[in-house]
Amino acid sequence: MTQWEAAAPDLWQGRDDSGEAANALRLFQTTARSQTFSPEHYRDKIALLGFACDEGVKRNQGRPGAAGAPDALRCALANLASHAGHERLVDMGNLLAPTADLEGAQQALRDAVSRCHQAGMRTFVLGGGHETAFGHGAGIFDAFPGERVGIVNLDAHLDLRNAGRATSGTPFRQLAQLCDQQQREFRYACIGVSRAANTQALWDEAQKRNVLVVEDLQCSEAHAQLAAFISEVDKLYLTVDLDVLPVAEMPAVSAPAALGVPLATLLTVIEPICRSGKLQAVDMVEFNPRFDNDGRSARVAARLGWQIAHWWQ
What we know:
Catalyzes the conversion of N-formimidoyl-L-glutamate to L-glutamate and formamide. Pathway: Amino-acid degradation; L-histidine degradation into L-glutamate; L-glutamate from N-formimidoyl-L-glutamate (hydrolase route): step 1/1. GO terms for molecular function: agmatinase activity; formimidoylglutamase activity; manganese ion binding. The protein is of the alpha/beta class. The protein has one domain (4-311): Ureohydrolase domain (Arginase, Chain A, 3-Layer(aba) Sandwich), CATH 3.40.800.10. Helices cover 34% and strands 18% of the residues. It contains 10 helices and 10 strands. The chain has helices at residues 27-30, 55-59, 69-78, 102-118, 132-143, 171-182, 200-208, 223-231, 263-274, 296-311; strands at 3-5, 32-33, 46-52, 89-96, 122-127, 149-154, 187-193, 212-215, 235-241, 279-285. Strands 1, 2, 3, 4, 5, 6, 7, 8, 9 and 10 form a 10-stranded mixed β-sheet that branches. Helix 6 links the parallel strand 6 and strand 7. Helix 3 packs across helix 10 (296-311).
């Protein structure tokens, strides 16, 4: 059974420099924290919502632990300086998925996301495994039935697996099937893909679905393709699987990348998405704090999330 709870206040702590100047602030001081799930009170804000679930990772034979990521990422974000855009963040708490009912958890996330968007908020979801993407994406589809929604996935994996049940490897096949049901076009770009980590069957499925695929070795040349993709949609959903980063930068994921796309390169891909005026939803997934002994991976993920919120127009 999935349940909601407010984020613990002690997650949002940091250095207090407010005595130095009125604008010497950090995220723990500017991020609002809602004690109820009430997006109707926060129009034009960004809902920071945790999805504490890794049942999809378990089903996909990965390393579990991503359910602990939302709170670990809050701690890493809290002490970062607050600049333009960050004042829009509202911590809307966590959806908890303590049982094996992944489908129920995804439906709960779908409903919560749809409610946020219908209330005029945007959503920034902290996963969880990449099963997060089906619940998040479906909620966006529900909220914008007449819009052309484009999905940009920064990921070493296509996540188009054909499986008997939902896993962290199936979310975009599930979203493609949902598009079929809703009679809308499936618009999906996957950037940073490792050919070595995806079977030919997955490449065939991507070709069948007309997916824009940019391999990890080609990311520095992806800007024209991405610009064309952005021009053809009304709304954008950006999902970042942190295993797109090299293992040296991001070891604490279910499937670390031997090559990966460096953070500095990845940010050049992300910036035009954020500045497009079309970005409606973001998530970061697959961070696994069990394998982050020195806190390095949390800091990298937090900087990435910080930059997205700062650029988000």
